[in-house]
Amino acid sequence: MDTSPAASAKRYPSIGNLLFTLQEAFVALLPYLLLSAATSVLAQGFVTYQWSLGPLHADTVVSTAYVLRGLFPLLLVISIAYHLARAHAMDTAITVLLSIVVYLGQDALRGITSQPPSHLPLSALVTPLVTVGLLRAVMKLPFTRVVRYRSMNHHVAAALNHGLPFTLVFVLATAAMMVIHFGLGKGAAGVTSMVGGLQLSNGALLIANSVISHLLWFVGLHGNNVFDLLVDGRSLEQFIFPNLTYYKFLDLFAGFGGAGAGLSLMIAILIVARDRHSRIIARTAAPFLVCNVTEVLIYGLPIVFNRRLLVPFVCVPLLNMGIAYLVLAQGWITFNGSSASWITPIFLDSYLMTGGLRAALLQAALLILSVLVYMPFVRRFSASQSTRMLRESLASRLGIEGDLQVRQGAGFQHAQSFILRSNIETQRVIELITANRLTLYYQPKIRASDQRCLGFEALLRLEFADGRVVGPYFLETLELAGLASVIDLWVCNEARRTLNSWDATGFHPRVAINLHPDTLGDPHCIDRILATLSGRNVEFEIIERAFATSPAMAEGIRRLRASGLRISIDDFGTGYSSLHSLYHLDADTIKLDKSLIDIVHTDRGYAIYRAICALCKELEFELIAEGVETEAQFALAKSLGVDAVQGWCFAPALNAEKAREYAVAHG
What we know:
Elements: H1 5-8, H2 14-28, H3 30-49, H4 58-70, H5 72-87, H6 92-109, H7 121-139, H8 154-161, H9 163-198, H10 202-218, H11 223-230, E1 239-241, E2 244-245, H12 246-253, H13 262-272, H14 276-290, H15 295-300, H16 307-328, H17 348-354, H18 358-385, H19 387-397, H20 410-413, H21 419-435, E3 437-447, E4 453-463, E5 469-470, H22 475-480, H23 484-503, E6 510-514, H24 517-520, H25 523-533, E7 538-543, H26 546-549, H27 551-562, E8 566-572, H28 579-584, E9 589-592, H29 594-597, H30 603-618, E10 622-626, H31 631-639, E11 644-646, H32 656-665
Parallel strand pairs: 4-6, 6-7, 7-8, 8-9, 9-10, 10-11
Antiparallel strand pairs: 1-2, 3-4, 3-11, 4-5
């Protein structure tokens, strides 16, 4: 097990991690968005067709839809704050409450509480980012620790320790947001003034409307509403062709299915997408897209921060507008002055406004063209979401040839709500590995009796171009995506190359390699491991639960032992350990988890450590203590009969050449 500080860093570069968290926050709002979209469509139907169902009248339904839409900014604040708090291991309840207070507080200070929250779309996105960032910084200050968590109930201690930071961050975050609002206000005024000064033609303003609103959708803001706040679009209510306004032209020929010609994106997904998530979202969004409500697709797929779909999302409406303008300019289609609600489905709206089928045929042609444009982008996006494609991509970039069975880890199988985030993160990890150098470092194992090096544990490291070396903070993501066996096979191949180079110098140490349970349960992977390392001085470190998870894993372990390879039980003393399992473990070595040595200074911790050591020695296991970082810990472990130790007290993980030099000097 890798216990180095580098390995404990579980964060991605801040921008990438932030985008993942924001996408997850938007996706979490999907149930609310479904309700809001359904209510909006129903309200428009009541208004357009003067429906009445007992006590339900148009005014009641419209008011309900208005209230639900108005909740979106506040719910977005809650969702982003919650997901940011989870990502940074913060108290979620306190973080969410503070973000809400800051959001509502700045609203009150600006004197606009009588206006609906939707007038502050950007504030809902920025407020939790500012609040969480400040709270993280303030909580690191020493004066915030009022009470110790061990001295009272954890929740009470957390509440007390957040008392002063809560107030301080409220003041700082509210002030920061006021400054941001001032800057945005000046910027918005500047944009409005600039657009007015340019005296854009209605056509240019229509193009600007489409481009800017779609870019705003991309960052999670309601593009049309925000654009209308920035730019006076009343001129777009004029006629572009007889009886057809600029806005209606946009709705009929560029916005079928809502923003990004969402109906065509939905069809493209159903035709070429292979990942389950995209297809489910497309089917769920279909009835709303027919009525030109696109939020379910934008926030559920999501389009938000989705760089693979940004280009067609922005460009397809522009392409449709250009073609439609050229066709209408020929005079082949005339409009009769009738109106159609914005929720009227494609084909029906054009028929109502023209009384004929020519406009509907034009819509059909544009729909087909839009689908064709979207298809290659959707295919690439779907491939990035596919576990099999990710696996093949990683295997290819690491030089692991041959057909590898797609095997989904238990964590992946039981975390379906995180499939989208997992796949996006996995693609980023693969790109990160490709751009840098994946390598193995070797941490010495020290014999307790004479402090001589008796072997190494092979540990993953990533070397950046600037010389930095970091631990495998990406490993959990790959495991959740079912890609653990690809990494394991690469480690086995790389370890063999290192052993071959050491053999040439007369150096023959034992090297321990970690294997994931998924690898153990894949007979094909076991075949390849045996072909690679059979007969070598190698030991495989396996977590204890692999012995009890499935017969396939137990069979994989049996085959490794039958070939003469040693088996070590890693992280013994953590969640899955039991006295009963010691009887059944078919292993040579027990590695005591670092968490045990960390509590050995307490009476109870010492008693537990001593008892485990005595029992393992009685059962004739070789015993190794992990995470030994001080001389006192080493002396204690040695006195309790530990055969070997591993930890920073003696040496960190070293590259192959320095590891050989260390072993020679301490051999």
